Every structure is written in C-alpha cells, then in structure tokens.
Amino acid sequence: MRADRVFAYGAAAGLLGDLLLGDPRRGHPVAAFGRAAAAVERVLWRDDRARGALHTAVCAGGAMAVGAVAARVVRTSPAASLTLTGAATWAVVGGTSLAREARAVGRALEAGDVEGARARLPHLCGRDPQALDADGIARAVVESVAENTSDAVVGALVWGAVGGVPGLLGFRAVNTLDAMVGHRSPKYLRYGWASARLDDVAGWPGARLTAVLATLAGDDPRGAVRAWRADAAAHPSPNAGPVEASFARALGVRLGGTLSYGGRVEHRPVLNGTGRAVGIHDVERAVRLSKRVSWLALGVCVAARRIAKGRTS
C-alpha cells in the first residue's frame, strides 16, 4: 500500500478513534512522554539556554526516533503500517478531550454553577479562574478551544502528512515540551527558550491552516479574513493570533482583552472588536466549529499528501 494511502486511512482511523474513545484515563502515551521529559529535566536543568536546547533535542528527537524505528519495523506490512499510523494519530490528537472539558465548563455555566465552572476551567487552560465571572470563563473556554484546535488536532495532522509517524510524534513532543517548560516563569525563562521557539516554528503551518478552515467554515468568511489581517499580528503569540481572530469572526464574538495567568495580569488586544461579548451558548458553538475544522483539516492533509506523492512518483 502506498504511503499516502497508509496516512489517509490511518489518520482517519485515529481521528475516528479519538472521536469514539477519547483519551484513556490512565496510561496515556503523552503522559508517559511527559514523565520521561521530566526525568531528563531533572538531570539537565540549569538556568541556561544551551541546557534547555539539549533537553529539547533529546526529548523531541527521541520521540521522532521512536516513531522512525517503529515505522521501519512495520514498513513491509500494509496492515501493520496502517495500524501504527492510526494508533499514533489517536495518541497525539486530543479533539474529544478538548470538547469534553469545554462542554463540562459550559454545562456548569448553564446551570448557574460559576464555582463549579471555575473548578473545572484549569483542566482546559491556565487562566486564574477566581479572577473570572461567568462571561469571562466562557470567553476563556472559547479562546482555549480555538487555540487547542490547532495545537491538539490540526498541527499534528499537518506534520503527520509531512513526516508520517515520526512527524506525528515529534509535533506532539514539541507541543508537550512547550507546555512543560516553555512558559515565561523565572525557572524556565532561559531553560525553556528553545522549546518555546521550536513550538512556534512547528505550530506555524497548523495555525494558518486552522485559521483558513475556521474562516471557510464560519458564517462570515470575508469578515474572518479581515479580522485575521487586522488583529492577529497584535496578539503576543504568532500562532494563537490568527486562530483566535478567525474563530472570533466566525462566531461573531469579541475575544482577547484583560486576563490573568498565575497572578500575572496581561492586557491583550481585542480580536474582532465589532463582535458581541462571548455568551455561555458560544461554548457549544466553538466546540462545533472546532470539530468541523478538524475533519476539514484531515481532508486537506490527505489531499496534500496524495498530491505530493503523485509529483514524486
């Protein structure tokens, strides 16, 4: 079976597996990678960029090497190759868990249980929940759904199309390292620099594809393009900016503004300033848009891999 077909069938099976099964409660491969990365950090950590770069290279390179070896072992068996691709896709995408956590917060808000929503929000994002009212929590959920559609689904599919199983595992490794050490805390400002910069690079194509597909899947494609062009560059993240701006216009809401992380207040630019304030019902709308974007991304990645294969044949 040709490599493009292995990716097409395997990635579709993995995405369907995520839809039906979600993430396992215990023994998730990404959690195992996180424990291994933490062990490497305990050995290597110094307040130094070079040590942080070595940490990134060891962990991300190791994940890709595991993927490359596994793919090589099964390369002569189409069924085994397809199974490996499906399993790797299921392991690295997280669309169902994203939707489940977003809806859990949304249900608490709909029931008027703001404290319950605050308690649940840290499962989804790193905002300080006590600083948020119901509308602020809803906005945080919509922004997190937008950003994680790119990080947890589309970006992985893009790199799977480019690099097969090593690409899938490598992207998730980079994204996980950024979450672990890539933030601007005193401990990781220098040590996590390489992980943060590599995540920006790896996330660039997936973020742009997510923004394009959100633009096309929303109710106002032209308006979404205008919001992307006008507002995205002002966002502190080069990848979250286009995604959140496109989602904002596609949903007809305003995103951005003042928020708090770990006791640190940030004043971010408003995205799609002509939109209305986020309401509780927009949580479900954002989840549905995320799902549409994810499946459209699969189609685009499969088509792109097939076209690339045809040109090299």
Describe this structure in words.
- It is built from 11 helices and 2 strands; from the N terminus they run ααααααααααββα.
- It has helices at 3-21, 29-44, 49-73, 78-92, 95-110, 114-120, 134-181, 193-217, 221-231, 240-251, 282-312; strands at residues 255-261, 264-271.
- A two-stranded antiparallel sheet has the order 1-2.
- β1 (255-261) and β2 form a beta hairpin.
- The model has no long low-confidence stretch (mean pLDDT 91).
Keywords:
313 residues; mainly alpha; two-stranded antiparallel sheet; 2 strands
Largest sheet: 2 strands, antiparallel
> How do the strands line up in the largest sheet?
1-2
Helix content: over 70%
Order of helices and strands: HHHHHHHHHHEEH
How many β-strand stretches? 2
Class per helix and strand makeup:
mainly alpha
Beta percentage is under 5%
Separation, N- and C-terminal Cα atoms: 14 Å
Radius of gyration: 19 Å
**How would the global form be characterised?**
globular
Unreliable stretches: none
Helix run count:
11
Average pLDDT, all residues = 91
Give a short summary of the structure.
This protein has helices at residues 3-21, 29-44, 49-73, 78-92, 95-110, 114-120, 134-181, 193-217, 221-231, 240-251, 282-312, and strands at residues 255-261, 264-271. With 313 residues, it is mainly α. It is globular, with a radius of gyration of 19 Å.
